[in-house]
Amino acid sequence: MSYIQFDKTQLINLKYSLSREFIRSNRAGAYASSTIINCNTRKYHGLLICPMEKLDGDNHVLLSSLDETIIQHEKEFHLAVKKYPGGIYHPGHKYLRDFSSEPIPTLTYRVGGVVLQKEMLLVEETEQLLIKYTLVDAHSPTKIKLHPFLAFRNVHKLSKSNLDVNSKFYNIQNGIKTRMYDAYPYLHMQTSKKAEYVHSPNWYYNIEYAEEEKRGYDFSEDLFVPGYFEFSIKKGESVVFSAGLTETTANSLKRKFASELKKRIPRDTFENCLINSAQQFIVRKDKKTEIIAG
Question: How many domains does the chain have?
Answer without folding.
Answer: 1
